[in-house]
Amino acid sequence: MKTLLTFHGGVGAVTGSNFLLTGPHTKMLIDCGLIQGEKFAHDLNRAEFPYDPSTVDFLVVTHAHIDHVGRIPKLVRDGFAGKIISTEETYLLAKLMLPDAFSVLRMETAQNEELLYDEKDIEQAFSLWETLPYHEKKTVGDFDVFLKDSGHILGSAMVEVTANGEQTEKRKIVFTGDLGNTPTPLLNPAEPITDATYIVMESVYGDRNHEGGERRKERLKEVIQEMVERKGVLLIPCFSLEKTQVLLSEMDEMYEDKELFTAPVFLDSPLAIKVTDVYRESGDKFRPEIQERLRKDDDVFSFPNLHLTMDARDSSEILRAPNPKIIIAGSGMSAGGRILDHERRYLGDPSNTILFIGYQAVGGLGRRIQEGQKNIRINHDEIKVKAHIETITGYSSHMDSDHLIEFASKGEGVTEKIFVVMGDPKSSLFLAQRIKDYVGIETYVPEVGESAEIEL
């Protein structure tokens, strides 16, 4: 079956995942994410979709990160009335993520500017939503859809698509979504893909590798100990989904091993607190080692000295807590949320530390701080950055370069072409060349709006 694959987002950049499959009678989107961190992200998110949403029949969602789901309400507002399909965990997490994103959007929208979408659009989106377990086929018009675990965050999925019907040769395209770090701290690893004809593959860390798990923990302890010795404040801009739960789990493990510091830890993120509750209810989805810990410890996401600050009043009280102290707050790329107030307050003091444990988009505030820019602007205030700047790459929830090549190699001899997406251009091009050189599979790095005709 001749099918047109069009790359409407998630190309030339990490965020904004949005791919369209057009069959003879069916149009199906994979993801509809928000563009984050880029200089012109605001205008790009508000732009009209390059296709008519009312003509799209299905949307399959790989996972609940905002750069994969954040424009779904706008899609609905602009006419989409088809079915939305994801795992149950992605549905539950999206029900937290989208309203939270809307509250940030409302604050950032100018008074004379129309909102990107409103609460009714969010409600309408969830009325269209259906869940699909891993390893269960669903027919959606011209296509059959099958989800596999991508190991990235709770409920994250790779989307396998074949032509609906009985073919003697089953040709298949797989959208990886985001692939989990190997080994993943909490979740099972990404399932191998051995029989795909085409792969649309992420490349966030396509040009570099992460620190190992043990080194990651050692680095965290080092950063904390140095901050405690200076009697300072440790700021951790942290994504509410997955990063926070991994961090809490490892801090809990340190405490159980009597290695945890005495400094209080403030989780200053209502969204992260709610997401952690979803994780608590999903223990059966964790890797065997974490399930073993759960049998000994009812809650791997909590420990003495951890303080949860749900409301703004509690958040403001953090200032009164004596140093040393640790503050975990969103957003993970310093693009909004409570972390901005803490950065405004604490980045000017050389006793303090800011620790980055997640990807920072090119051009975003987090990236500029991470790269050592000394003068920044936060909420109209000019800040001279004097705090220590640290980065631990081992907390990434994305596969690194070597593991991405290993993942691609599973399809050697079967996979005809890999489209390398969802990465900065340098990262995508580097990974594409390495796959071509080391695995021998044809690769291609598409541009926004480009289409490729494939045969399913």
Give a quick precis of the structure:
With 456 residues, the protein is an alpha/beta fold. The chain contains 14 helices and 22 strands. The chain folds into two domains: 2-208 and 397-455, Metallo-beta-lactamase, Chain A, CATH 3.60.15.10; 213-395, 3-Layer(aba) Sandwich (Rossmann fold).
Task: Spell out the blueprint of helices and strands.
Elements: E1 2-9, E2 18-22, E3 27-30, H1 41-46, E4 58-60, H2 66-69, H3 72-77, E5 83-86, H4 88-108, H5 119-127, E6 129-131, E7 138-140, E8 143-149, E9 157-163, E10 172-175, E11 198-202, H6 213-229, E12 233-237, H7 243-256, E13 265-268, H8 270-280, H9 288-296, E14 306-308, H10 312-317, E15 325-329, H11 339-346, E16 353-356, H12 365-370, E17 375-378, E18 381-384, E19 388-391, H13 401-409, E20 417-421, H14 425-438, E21 442-444, E22 451-455
Helix pairs in contact: 4-8, 13-14
